[in-house]
C-alpha cells in the first residue's frame, strides 16, 4: 500500500500544482504525510528562517555588513552622500549610513514574538498553499500577516534609536553641510519612516533566503519532518 501511495506522488510531481493539490486534499490522515505534518513542517521551516536569519539582523552590523539588506540612503539623499564624498567627507557619509543600519538592528529585536504568533496560526490550508507555491510563498504569507504589526513596533524603536546613537545630530550635520553647497536644493526626508520600511524589507528578504534554501536544497532540510514534507514539492 505504501509503495502504491509513493508511486502516486512520483507521478503527480510531474503534473500541474493544481492537480498535486488535489492529491494532497484526498490524502487520509494515516497516509505518507498527514495534514498535521504538512502544517507542522511549514511552521518548522518558518521557525528556522526566523532563528537562522532574522536573529542575525539584530547583531551589530547585521544590516550594515550584509549587502542583501544594507540600508542605503533614500534616493533624494543619495546626492548628499555623493556630494560629501566628492569633497573628502567620506567618513562623515559612512557614519550617516551606519546609524541608519544600527537603528534597524535595534528594531528587529521586536520582530520575533510577532513572527512566532503568526507561525502558530498557520492552518493546514495555509500550509498546503504555501507548500505548493513559489519559492517565497511562506515569506509572502508572513508578510501579509505581520507587516502592519511590525511597522508599528519598528517605527518608535527606530525613532528612539536615532536619538540614542546620535543620529539626529549626525544627520543635521550632514544635511546642513550639504545645504551649504552651491547649486543644491534643501532636503529634509522622513528618515524614521524610510528606515522602518527598509528594515521590514530586510527581515522578509532574509526569511526568503532561508525558505529558498529549504525548498531547493535537500541538505538544508535538517530534520526528518522537513525532509518528509518538502519532498512533496520536489
From TrEMBL:
Q: Which Pfam families match?
A: DUF4197
Q: What is this protein called?
A: DUF4197 domain-containing protein
Q: Name the species this protein comes from.
A: Hyunsoonleella flava
Q: What lineage is this protein's organism placed in?
A: Bacteria, Pseudomonadati, Bacteroidota, Flavobacteriia, Flavobacteriales
Amino acid at each position: 500500500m505504501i509503495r502504491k501511495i509513493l508511486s502516486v506522488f512520483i507521478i503527480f510531481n510531474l503534473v500541474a500544482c493544481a492537480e498535486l493539490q488535489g492529491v494532497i486534499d484526498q490524502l487520509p490522515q494515516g497516509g505518507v504525510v498527514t495534514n498535521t505534518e504538512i502544517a507542522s513542517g511549514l511552521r518548522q521551516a518558518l521557525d528556522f528562517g526566523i532563528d537562522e536569519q532574522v536573529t542575525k539582523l539584530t547583531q551589530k552590523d547585521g544590516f550594515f555588513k550584509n549587502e542583501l539588506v544594507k540600508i542605503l540612503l533614500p534616493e533624494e539623499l543619495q546626492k548628499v552622500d555623493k556630494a560629501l564624498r566628492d569633497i573628502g567627507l567620506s567618513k562623515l557619509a559612512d557614519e550617516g549610513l551606519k546609524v541608519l543600519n544600527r537603528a534597524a538592528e535595534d528594531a528587529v529585536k521586536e520582530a520575533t514574538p510577532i513572527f512566532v504568533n503568526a507561525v502558530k496560526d498557520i492552518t493546514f490550508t495555509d500550509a498546503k498553499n504555501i507548500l505548493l507555491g513559489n519559492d517565497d510563498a511562506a515569506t509572502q504569507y508572513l508578510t501579509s500577516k505581520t507587516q502592519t504589526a511590525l511597522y508599528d513596533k519598528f517605527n518608535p524603536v527606530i525613532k528612539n534609536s536615532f536619538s540614542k546613537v546620535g543620529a539626529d545630530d549626525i544627520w543635521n550635520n550632514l544635511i546642513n553641510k550639504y545645504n551649504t553647497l552651491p547649486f543644491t536644493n534643501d532636503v529634509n526626508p522622513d528618515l524614521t519612516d524610510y528606515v522602518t520600511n527598509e528594515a521590514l524589507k530586510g527581515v522578509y528578504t532574509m526569511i526568503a533566503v532561508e525558505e529558498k534554501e529549504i525548498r531547493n536544497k535537500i541538505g538544508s532540510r535538517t530534520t526528518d519532518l522537513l525532509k518528509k514534507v518538502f519532498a512533496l514539492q520536489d
